[in-house]
Give the backbone structure.
Amino acid sequence: MTRKTLEGKVIVLGVTGSIAATEVVRLSHELRRRGAVVQAVMSEAAARIVHPDAVTYATGRPALTAISGMVEHVLYCGEEGRADLLLVAPCTANTLAKVALGIDDTPVTTFATTAIGRGMPVLVAPAMHGSMYRHPAIAGHLKTLGEWGIGVVAPRIEEGRAKLATTEAIVLEAERALTGRPLGGKRVLVTSGPCAEPVDDVRVLTTRSTGRMGREMALEAYRLGAEVTVVHSASLPCVKNVPATSAGEMRESVHRIMKAEGADIYVSAAAISDFAPKRVKGKIRSGKPVSLALDPLPKLLDEVLERYRPETIAFKLGRDEAAAARALLKRGVRVVVVNAPEAMGAGETEVTLLSRDGERAARGTKEEVAAAIWDALR
């Protein structure tokens, strides 16, 4: 079941004349799944690309294609308007320029002028050809919008185009804009996922971890307003991704980031290897028993606690780890998450959260549990 992160929020979705307007149906569905009420407003150009009836079906509300005597822009984005967020997605180069210059000649730009004047949250998600996105005027307009406090959902630069950001990224930015940003100004560093230690040129020694918990911890921190860096072997939207496969690479990256940038909060969610085999050159021949010598690896969590002392969220895997978890609290860890081996790879989990305020259980999807963990830290 999808977590209702946008429950009770009203989002005006401005749709302009990019071919990416075809993604609006999917985007509307996802915003609604997250609990939002979505009211679409469309430019004439957008209505030539995606039919207003399709957008009406996707949002469950009649799409607005003109401003009437009901002064819909004031009704939603005026001083006492119903809307919590104006999201323009996709935002063409033409609309971007008009918004930055205060030009108001389409239903979407009328809503934008009203919303900006009110000072309510506004997000734009550009989509255009690469050459248009590189135009110096567009860069200047983006700078202007940033100075006004308007959020920009960065496009995906692919195949010579500045393509509309993924639905996941746009929804995440909408959530971030509406949370109140309790972690605003904080730098969060997350280690996530499994490590793979080479056995030979073909094989690796690893764990069953999928990195799902670390992923959700990072995304929730971003929702809450933090600047987030994740050291892992995957890639997440909106955050800074630092690639690392082995325990050594992860350790090196964490120390480099801590020394260069620092972190207010460290989340040790990775299943970092405790041992590494002595690597064999080439490929170990099959068909015969093999003995592997495993050397212990340094404990990255211990090093971070001793050298940098950030607020730390640590994870302990195992049913009988309560004593070890309490020992971490005494060493300065703020929250220790104790979970069972069955949690690895599972969609849902049940954990015990230990903190200075006591002990409590959290159960649900890993996104729901991640939210409970961040709540325990606060």
